[in-house]
């Protein structure tokens, strides 16, 4: 039995209404919480609308597709009008007969108002796969790289997408060949055609069942996409075909039409101030006892005279089950509220849980040949007053153990950049980045790639950084594999997007895997160096996990 998604209007003057629906799950029924001001709608766990997509990994890597095109149509005042017009434009594609055996075309309709991409995504039925990516404020970053357009009005803030025009997913390690398969669909002349997704922390590790749909890497070019700019918005549809991938123009148009017919023409503002939600149970892997043992063993390895290991990052997975089954997109919206100086993301393949996060850590941002990276390490809570906050900051800057942990990260990233870049500059060399609940030591590194083909090299070289793995990389990764009792999946892996002229990746920390009917797996890690204390490192895990759970007002029952 299935119940369709529907939106029911409400004229209630009392403000936000809370909508509950029942999710089918083995042996239990948990209410789903989806909150919108003045309206509610049902979500049913058994209803997953999805259309087939082109398998981009099957492509010949010899060169770009034969045609790439962005068609921009006159701007409209509302989302509803944009949706209806876009449906009509997609329907007209059926009558086209391209002369090319491969290509990608984007149809885009500007909307003459600023609408949040996360609100649009929350307003959609459960269309999978889906993605969301929100960049950090350029003002906060002091980022010297230009935006997609030199006009600040066209600075892309957030992107939401449903359905996949092209999907790239395999269980082997992400390779240069896989990167080439993605890049052949991207070009400078179509800057908003992008592939969004992520890569596992360790492709050598066995994939656990909850991470199976993500493979070793998962990227998609959305079929229907909502782009949020600083002053306006764009609704777009993308069609891609390639006979070499056994995916014809007719296949592509039919799939796109199926998806866009299910897209809601309305949107609502997501309620970001939720009532307190009780945590019915929480389960740590590892337990505190095993954690203490693991940290002491790691310190013994670091202290061995014949060991090169100077730092290792050990992580914890916490299974939380809540009194209501929280919608992952609503959770991301709550994270976005307090994460203006962080990246928010959601990656959800078909028939899969949602990987969400609110990460402060950039892996790299490329614009042309220019590249920016960051070193982020060492952690303190924020102070309860300005004076206390300043004292904590000064302690963070002067503490020898924190300086060692941070220096290992910064210098390792600098060496990796120097291998593929000219004139690497570190500025600031050491400062403090403040987040709403937490603060870290921070440095920014800038360089210039020698060729555009070095983009794959910089991705594969930078990941994993010492901030999420340790140093030296192989020794740290081996110790992690021997010690940790769970699959990190994409936690601490690269999450972001590839574009023709621009690409950006964050590090998938402060993250959770949200599973319908099963609660969420929330991840956190901490750097272990000489002088680390197991109990203090456990406290740091608690502090970091609060960055994810407190946004939803999750409290132990």
From TrEMBL:
One of its GO terms (cellular component) is chloroplast. One of its GO terms (biological process) is defense response. GO terms for molecular function: isochorismate synthase activity. Pathway: Siderophore biosynthesis; salicylate biosynthesis. Residues 291-544 form the Chorismate-utilising enzyme C-terminal domain. It comes from the Eukaryota. It catalyses: chorismate = isochorismate. It holds the Pfam family Chorismate_bind. The keyword Plastid applies. It is found in: Plastid, Chloroplast. It is an enzyme of class 5 (isomerase). Its cofactor is Mg(2+). Transmembrane segments: none annotated. The keyword S-adenosyl-L-methionine does not apply. Its EC number is 5.4.4.2. Keywords: Chloroplast, Isomerase, Magnesium, Plant defense, Plastid, Transit peptide. Isochorismate synthase involved in the synthesis of salicylic acid (SA) required for both local and systemic acquired resistance (LAR and SAR) while SA synthesized through the phenylalanine ammonium lyase (PAL) pathway seems to potentiate plant cell death. Also involved in phylloquinone (vitamin K1) synthesis. Has no isochorismate pyruvate lyase (IPL) activity. Belongs to the isochorismate synthase family. This is isochorismate synthase. The lineage of its organism: Eukaryota, Viridiplantae, Streptophyta, Embryophyta, Tracheophyta.
């Amino acid at each position: 039995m299935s119940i369709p998604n529907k939106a029911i209007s409400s004229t209630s003057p009392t403000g936000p209404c809370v909508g509950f629906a029942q999710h089918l799950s083995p042996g239990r029924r948990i209410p789903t919480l989806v909150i919108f001001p003045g309206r509610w709608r049902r979500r049913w766990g058994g209803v997953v609308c999805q259309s087939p997509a082109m398998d981009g990994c099957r492509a010949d890597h010899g060169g770009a597709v034969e045609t790439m095109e962005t068609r921009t149509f006159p701007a409209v005042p509302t989302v509803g009008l944009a949706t209806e017009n876009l449906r009509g434009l997609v329907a007209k594609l059926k009558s086209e007969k391209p002369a090319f055996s491969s290509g990608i075309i984007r149809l885009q309709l500007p909307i003459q108002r600023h609408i949040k991409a996360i609100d649009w995504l929350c307003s959609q039925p459960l269309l999978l796969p889906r993605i969301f990516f929100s960049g950090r404020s350029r003002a906060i970053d002091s980022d010297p790289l230009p935006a997609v357009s030199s006009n600040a009005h066209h600075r892309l803030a957030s992107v939401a997408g449903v359905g996949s025009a092209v999907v790239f997913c395999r269980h082997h390690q992400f390779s240069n060949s896989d990167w080439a398969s993605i890049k052949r669909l991207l070009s400078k002349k179509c800057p908003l055609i992008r592939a969004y997704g992520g890569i596992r922390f360790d492709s050598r590790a066995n994939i656990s069942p909850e991470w199976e749909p993500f493979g070793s890497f998962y990227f998609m070019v959305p079929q229907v996409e909502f782009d949020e700019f600083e002053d306006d918005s764009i609704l777009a549809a993308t069609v891609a075909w390639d006979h070499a991938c056994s995916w014809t123009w007719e296949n592509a148009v039919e799939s796109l039409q199926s998806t866009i017919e299910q897209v809601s023409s309305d949107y609502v503002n997501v309620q970001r101030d939720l009532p307190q939600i009780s945590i019915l149970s929480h389960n740590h892997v590892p337990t505190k006892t095993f954690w203490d043992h693991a940290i002491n063993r790691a310190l013994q390895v670091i202290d061995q005279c014949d060991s090169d290991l100077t730092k290792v990052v050990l992580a914890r997975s916490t299974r939380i089950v809540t009194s209501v089954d929280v919608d992952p997109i609503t959770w991301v919206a709550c994270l976005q509220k307090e994460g203006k100086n962080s990246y928010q993301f959601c990656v959800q393949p078909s028939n899969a849980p949602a990987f969400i996060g609110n990460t402060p850590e950039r892996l790299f941002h490329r614009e042309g040949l220019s590249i920016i990276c960051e070193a982020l390490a060492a952690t303190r809570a924020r102070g309860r007053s300005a004076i206390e906050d300043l004292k904590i900051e000064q302690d963070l800057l002067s503490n020898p153990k924190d300086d060692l942990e941070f220096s290992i990260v910064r210098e390792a990233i600098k060496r990796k950049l120097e291998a593929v870049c000219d004139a690497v500059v570190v500025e600031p060399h050491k400062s403090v980045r403040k987040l709403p609940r937490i603060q870290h030591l921070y440095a920014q590194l800038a360089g210039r790639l020698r060729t555009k083909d070095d983009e794959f090299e910089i991705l594969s070289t930078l990941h994993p950084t010492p901030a999420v793995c340790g140093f030296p990389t192989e020794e740290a990764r081996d110790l992690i594999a021997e010690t940790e009792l769970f699959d990190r999946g994409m936690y601490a892996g690269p999450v972001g997007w590839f574009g023709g002229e621009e690409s950006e990746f964050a590090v998938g920390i402060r993250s959770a895997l949200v599973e319908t009917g099963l609660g969420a797996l929330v991840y956190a890690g901490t750097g272990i160096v000489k002088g680390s204390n197991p109990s203090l490192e456990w406290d740091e895990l608690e502090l970091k996990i609060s960055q994810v759970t407190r946004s939803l007002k999750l409290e132990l029952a």
